[in-house]
Specification:
- The protein contains twelve helices and two strands, in the order αααααααααααββα.
- The protein has 395 residues and is mostly helical.
- A two-stranded antiparallel ribbon has the order 1-2.
- The longest helix is centred in the last third of the chain and has 50 residues.
- The N and C termini lie far apart (78 Å).
Length: 395
């Protein structure tokens, strides 16, 4: 029995080797590299072949694809069903331009965040802290898998619905768009079909991995708050408590800086994403009322709506976790054996508690916060958009 207790104490106190935080998002980073949005190593964009690849890929698969769909809108303004069928997807595709722009513009900040993440201050101090952060890492992995499954399920039905609904004979394309050539004749139809699917696959990868990267940054902020709370609860285990408290204060400052830099990167993205998501969900629900039940278009709309819901829930959930976990920091100080500390340490603890009274809140340009309440408001707004569209269509 004593041996088991000794092993447990050793497990909780023994220092760990370097913990690679980036290992969790390895797949995410790899996908960003493939679409040209993550230069190798700690570098930013320079005059290189990779930068050229990025420019060509984004122009070909994002800008051109969106341009052809936007042009088509002017020909279908009087057709509500065709208009909503185009716009509910086009909004997400246009947002991809904003995401690509901000990730390129803030690449230096993102690379610095990755360096900070693996710095000594952000490392788990023992196996106990590793166990504490493990659920956060696993929750992000689960969300990445679910979101990816929804996205690629949508992609599958978009790619195959002309075949499944036997519309290929009518030279039906997956997306309504205008092209300066006749897509009703071969081989232009086949070439355009392949181009649309290549473009939407590229856009899907960009959206999926930029969104999950943002969620990962918030997840890491919350995990650091968990580590800081554990350090504070067990601060009495160190010989020099005051020095350890100063280290915790420095860690808290580093977390605040990490959260602020992360928020700086994705603030505009989140603001536009929430607006686009509210409109897209409303239009998708309207599409479900006009397409044939249980057709491939019907299933693609269901997958798409679920993907968008998971997308905004992911933002709000991990943002909400940051606020909750950072609000636990003052309580963690009280959970320590502070009564045995010196008067100087107790005074420093009071000052630290006062500084931590305001939790970390992730916002979109300080207009609204990433919380579960925001998620509920977005869903209510989506329903309002759907109700308006349904009423207009009936009239």
């Amino acid at each position: 029995m004593h041996k088991g207790v000794a092993e447990q104490m050793h497990r909780l106190q023994v220092p760990m080797g370097t913990f690679d935080w980036k290992l969790t998002i390895k797949t995410n980073i790899t996908m960003l590299k493939i679409v040209g949005l993550w230069p190798v190593g700690d570098e930013t964009y320079t005059f290189s072949l990779y930068t050229l690849y990025t420019i060509i890929s984004i122009f070909t698969f994002i800008y051109c694809h969106n341009f052809f769909q936007v042009c088509n809108i002017f020909f279908i303004l009087d057709d509500l069903e065709a208009l909503t069928a185009t716009v509910f997807v086009l909004l997400t595709e246009l947002l991809c331009i904003l995401k690509a722009y901000y990730i390129i513009q803030n690449m230096k900040i993102l690379k610095q965040l990755m360096v900070t993440l693996n710095s000594e201050m952000f490392q788990p101090k023992n196996l106990r802290q590793r166990d504490i952060v493990e659920p956060s890492l696993n929750s992000w992995k689960m969300v990445y898998t679910v979101f990816g499954s929804m996205a690629f399920g949508t992609l599958f039905f978009w790619a195959t619905f002309p075949f499944l609904d036997k519309l290929v004979q009518q030279h039906k394309l997956p997306f309504l768009a205008w092209y300066p050539w006749d897509t009703k004749i071969s081989p232009f139809y086949e070439i355009t079909y392949v181009y649309q699917m290549a473009s939407i696959s590229f856009i899907c990868l960009v959206n999926l991995n930029v969104d999950t990267l943002i969620a990962a940054l918030n997840m890491y902020t919350g995990a650091q708050c968990d580590i800081l709370c554990d350090d504070l609860r067990h601060i009495h285990e160190f010989a020099d408590v005051n020095a350890r408290l100063i280290s915790c204060v420095q860690h808290h400052k580093a977390i605040l800086k990490f959260a602020a830099n992360s928020n700086q990167f994705f603030s505009w993205i989140v603001l536009v994403q929430f607006f686009v998501s509210a409109v897209s969900i409303g239009m998708t629900m309207f599409q479900l009322t006009v397409v044939a039940a249980f057709s491939s278009q019907f299933y693609s709309s269901i997958f798409y709506a679920n993907a968008v819901i998971v997308e905004i829930f992911m933002y709000c959930w991990f943002g909400n976790e940051v606020e909750i976990k950072s609000s636990n920091i003052p309580y963690a100080v009280f959970e320590s054996d502070w009564t045995e500390a010196s008067l100087e340490v107790q005074k420093n603890m009071v000052f630290f508690i006062l500084r931590c009274q305001k939790p970390i809140k992730i916002s979109a340009l300080n207009l609204f916060y990433l919380t579960l309440d925001t998620f509920v408001r977005i869903m209510r707004t989506s329903w309002s958009y759907f109700a308006v569209l349904h009423q207009v269509s009936e009239e």
